[in-house]
Amino acid sequence: MIGILGAGAFGTALAVALTANGPVTLWGRRIDWTGENPRLPGVPLPPGLTVTQDLDRALQADTILLALPAQVLGAFLDDHAARLDGKRLVSTAKGIDLRRLTGPSALIAQGCPDATVAVLTGPSFAADIARGLPTALTLACADPAAAEALQQRLSTPVLRLYRTTDVVGAELGGALKNVIAIAAGTVIGAGLGDSARAAIITRGFAEMTRLAGHLGARPETLTGLSGLGDLTLTCTSGQSRNFRYGCALGSGKDFDSTTTVEGAATARALDRMASRDGLDLPIAAMVARLAEGGISVEKAMDRLLSRPLKEE
Ligand SMILES: NC(=O)c1ccc[n+]([C@@H]2O[C@H](COP(=O)([O-])OP(=O)(O)OC[C@H]3O[C@@H](n4cnc5c(N)ncnc54)[C@H](O)[C@@H]3O)[C@@H](O)[C@H]2O)c1
Ligand SMILES: O=P(O)(O)OC[C@H](O)CO
Fold it and tell me: Entry's HAMAP family (predicted)?
């Protein structure tokens, strides 16, 4: 059995998709819906899927997917790590914990030292996965045998997993692309055009590879599904919450504060990491200021454009 913790859009979409491989139990802290999840409208729940508020029931599974937002995961582990330890734990969160300045895999490894820790990431909208549209993701686990076992366990005929042992690279790609997607959305929302967006995506990718290299990621991971693949999707699709949030910032419109926008907190985390490690991450710094409301879009763009001219 597969257990999925976190009954938001992504946890529910994966639960629906993975019933193709056998029974799935989906846990949420508050399940106040029946039939279909309002975070994933129009998706009926298949018969092989059990939805529960009983954590023990979901923890009977041999493989557990943690589909919680990055800023929630740390507190969840503070409460429940002992019950998760020793299991195969796969994180789907795309962010950097603002308090500890680490990615999800390090958070899990700290709380659950005897667990097998993996990361599932890559270009994928919950709605697409739930509808059974073809999707390719990266499954990262430092243990090659466990990576292969999880790859087999979590692939379906339409959900194609590629494996890697570069956990740091895979999770950084997913976390950092959200920040760049906010910047890309801001550019579009402010009416600055597609050429400016292409510049932000490309310079954002340079920023991603710089930080990932500094933290020990392999360069080829960043050019794969979890990096460039997800960056492309998130910076160009109106389905992305991070991109839409950026559009709202750029155009001065309101944005629903209950929507999960991982890139806002992650930009602030990156800004702190940049100060700590002496790194140059100007786009992340700009997104952090914009998300905090500490700078206008015009001023943020001025700051980026007035940086010294240099080699590419
Ligand atoms: N939605 C997507 O298309 C998508 C795709 C790939 C990856 N992801 C990633 O998956 C993660 C989850 O995103 P999502 O789209 O499911 O978000 P969501 O906003 O749809 O759902 C988040 C869920 O977490 C629950 N939650 C919040 N605090 C909690 C706590 N303390 N304990 C238990 N549950 C808690 C909420 O009740 C909600 O059900 C994010 O890191 C996101 O980047 C999402
Ligand atoms: O809606 P977003 O911006 O959180 O993006 C969802 C996925 O991460 C896209 O791969």
Answer: NAD_Glyc3P_dehydrog
